[in-house]
Design brief:
Elements: H1 2-23, H2 34-53, H3 59-63, H4 65-84
Length: 91
């Protein structure tokens, strides 16, 4: 019985990580471990906060969630590639 519960817990955790990986923008070369996924998600949240604070989010972009998501994903990828963050960075 404990094995079944552990398998279900592990499956649920893996599904949650898969969902998180779909949300955070990644680079084609990324093959993220669970800890790397969590660290990148934390950085992405920080990045989004900075975008909101900097007034770069204009009203047109905010009105279309798909376009906003695509633009933010692109901006985050550029931010990462410019070296503002690396997978080895601790957070």
């Amino acid at each position: 019985m404990a094995n079944v519960r552990e398998r279900q817990r592990t499956q649920s955790l893996n599904e949650a990580f898969a969902a998180l990986r779909k949300i955070i923008p990644t680079l084609p070369s990324d093959k993220l471990s669970k800890i790397q996924t969590l660290k990148l998600a934390a950085r992405y949240i920080d990045f989004l906060y900075q975008v909101l604070q900097s007034d770069e989010l204009d009203s047109k972009m905010a009105s279309c969630s798909y376009v906003a998501h695509e633009r933010l994903s692109y901006a985050f990828s550029v931010w990462r590639m410019e070296g503002a963050w690396s997978m080895s960075a601790s957070h």
